[in-house]
Amino acid sequence: MNDKHIVSSFDRDLESIQASVIKMGGLVEAALADAITALKTRDVEKAAMVRKGDRFIDELDQVVKTDAAKLIALRSPTASDLRTVLSVMEISSHLERCGDYAKNMGKRTIAMADSNEINGTLASLGRMSQFVEAMIKDALDAFVQRDLEKAREIIARDEEADQIYNTLFRSLLTHMMEDHRNIAVGMHLHFIAKNIERVGDHATGIAEQTIYLVTGQMPDDDRPKQDVPAVDTSESKG
Amino acid sequence: MNDKHIVSSFDRDLESIQASVIKMGGLVEAALADAITALKTRDVEKAAMVRKGDRFIDELDQVVKTDAAKLIALRSPTASDLRTVLSVMEISSHLERCGDYAKNMGKRTIAMADSNEINGTLASLGRMSQFVEAMIKDALDAFVQRDLEKAREIIARDEEADQIYNTLFRSLLTHMMEDHRNIAVGMHLHFIAKNIERVGDHATGIAEQTIYLVTGQMPDDDRPKQDVPAVDTSESKG
Predict the structure, then answer these.
(1) Where in this protein does the record put region Disordered (chains A, B) (predicted)?
(2) Interface of B with A in 19-78 (CB under 8 A)
(3) For position B14, which CATH number holds?
(4) Mutate which of B233, B235, B236 to disrupt the A interface (most A C-beta within 10 Å)?
(5) Into how many domains does chain B fold?
(6) Residue range B78-111, pLDDT digits in tens
(7) Exposed end of chain B (fewer CB within 10 Å): N or C?
(8) Domain containing A188: what range?
(9) Which of B156, B153, B160 is nearest to B196 (CA)?
(10) Residue A177 maps to a domain
(11) Cβ contact (<8 Å) for B114 and A72?
């Protein structure tokens, strides 16, 4: 049974803003998928489209921010409702940044169009990208449903994303050490991997907003995050 | 002569929020300077302090966002004033992200504490960091003074920051190719260089908000940005 029989004007306005955020999420997922496809297939045109398409994500971010501000101005929401609007604005910023990462992947695909592939790396990047796309999608679902458990589960998944990134980091380093012709392209692939890993961080940021909304407190930020592998300068590998 | 004899309540509230943003700017500059010093002197404790100190920048960001929302709720500002408050919120987000980059530099300094130095790179990183610190400071000045010329000059300076980054990118690549023991530490230094370059982008983002406020239009985002060097896979260098 639903306790809330009367939907307030505030709720209606908020839902319309949330719809824009969900739309942004869809664009971000598509941009990431297209960026990876462009990278895998050396499709410079598709990469250029991802790069240009980021404009639409940026525009939606502006729409969300402006609509949210108008809602605040019009309804003067109190503590909890105000927090909700601020959360929606923060989530919009997270998605806008994810769009920037997809755009950067497009740029790098164009820059490395004529380079050699490094064995297996593109497949790993593709899997990692699918993993964080799902995190974004689920983080938005958790937000819309105010689902605390789902939100916490996203944060746990980010540790897995970090581990995938670290494995890829070490694998790329090995390839670069084995053949110096791999170094330049390895650098770009590293940055692409880092971009994808950062999308996972933003999914976590979105999940944290949900936790904040439901519990009134941000989760502790000091969890041990393994996103900067230590440097092993020994030469024992060779 | 000042045309505005009567300072509105809105202006007073806004000034107090702007003061928080300026304070954030100061913390970001200090965090960047400390992160570079920690890197140069292999000072793991200082690096850890930078990492922890990011919390204060994040907290100020929260304060700015909440105060801005309260101002909107209380005063229901109209078009131009609303735009100003939204700009202050965006600038706060830019600074928060700069804080994240300084924090990441701290993390990387800790991760590479026992590695070899790559000739001259730390000095270059130091110069690049001072360059973007000044950009942040001047971008905030331009915003407070609504100085269109100054804001445009920041955007021009970002091209120089990109060039410094590209030079450093190529120099690091060369070192990595010459001696594979440089590869792992070179990767970390690359990411640090990229972090610094991104701070320049955020200074540009702040300058763009000023241009938006004064002219009512965002500057064209499609300027040719040289922040992703093309990959040269030929071996002619060796």
Answers:
(1) 216-238
(2) 55, 58, 65-66, 69-70, 72-74, 76-77
(3) 1.20.58.220
(4) B233
(5) 1
(6) 888 999 999 999 999 999 999 999 999 999 999 9
(7) N
(8) 9-215
(9) B160
(10) yes
(11) no
